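Hello support,

Our group uses your service weekly, and this is the first time we've seen a run hang past the timeout. The protein is NCS2 family permease. I'm not sure whether the cause is the sequence or the server load. Input pasted verbatim:
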Amino acid sequence: MEPNSSSLADKSTARPDEQAAPPANWLDHYFGVTRRGSSLRIEILAGIATFLASMYIIVVNPAILSDAGIPFSAALSATVLISFMSSLAMGLYARNPILVAPGMGMNALFTYTLVQGAGLSWEVALGCVFWSGVLFAILAMFNVRKAIIEAIPPSLRYAITCGIGLFITFIGFKNAGFIIGSDATLVTLGNMDASMVTFFIGMMATAIMVILRFNGALILGIALTTLLATPMGRLWGGDVVVEWSGLAAWPDFSAVMQVDIWGALTVAYLPFIFVMLFTNFFDALSCFMALSESADLKDKDGNPRNLKRSMTVDAFASMIAAPLGTSAAQTFIESGAGVAQGGRTGLVAVTIALLFLPFLFLSPLLSLVPGIATAPALVLVGLFMLAPISKIEWTKFDQAFPAFLAIILMPLTYSITLGIAFGFLSFVLIKLFTGNIQEIKPAMWVSAALSVVMLVTTH
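Update from on-call engineer: The timeout came from a worker crash unrelated to the input. Re-ran successfully.
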């Protein structure tokens, strides 16, 4: 498939005693590129493919975190730094072709549930992120994933992902003014103005590019919608939403070390920490399993390759994210774009990490992007997250009802934690009063108890 790179790798491994290894051969040897049936060229191209599929997070994450009060430029610097550091660790330590960056579900939970919903300051919310990362690291180090996986029913795990997807989609529509508040019906369609038309055209163009499998469809959609929004307030009605403030600047580290670690250690905040832990843990595990199946990234026992190391990287990425000034980092399912290109080793993740780094200096340019330009990406990400809905056994009502509550209550209550809480509570109550108490694992009893604590202390 790649004759030049493959022949070079074959020569380098044929006679190890003669290797005065140039850098390419050292990379091949360290990452096992040839041994995995790949080549240096394929690995680098796979890294570029994953980066293009996921670079929207550089703009979208700061846009969401700025709603929590974190300055856009500071959130952008934190986003780039944690993406660089954690992806580099995933490549060099876990040696898997997986991107780690601030997750969409986690940033929504951080901003709209903890800060806007529960009234935490963003510094205390970062403290909750830190402690969830500490607990994640403990779970990863002691390898207790099997017991936790077996405790939470698959229907609820799938439902939580789907519910977060609907919630993110709702945020996208709200940010674009496509959905607005209404005294009569709670929500309704927004005004048919320049902003709505611009958003709708951008959303449809982004969807078409996704359907046609354009590389980097989401970031292209953001760029196109920004261009469409530029004349607003200038050539036709509406406010000016796109304003030039420069091309490059030194990184903004004003949010670094602003985390309130001890302020987060309050009994009322424990459920939030648990929900963050739960969401991040299962997102990571689900991502690793899906990618290992699709690309045969398995060990001799049939488990995802280097799973313990990968989970450890994900856990420490969450811990480091908080002091840097962003919500928790997690594995990205968009890593599948690079895997589909043939990427099989940690060199893919290293390539991704290096591609993130230049954007550390481009916050003025990226601040051009208005809310209506990131909104189409939020809508599409929500769609992607709805994929597991087909795995829920809807004909089994004792499984379907808790899953349904979790899914529908997240957007309707504007809270991820409330959706999870009522999903857990309803599952435990249904099993308890239908004579199936033996199906409730200890971790589910703990989850239900934490849900009650959260409901009592925060509502």
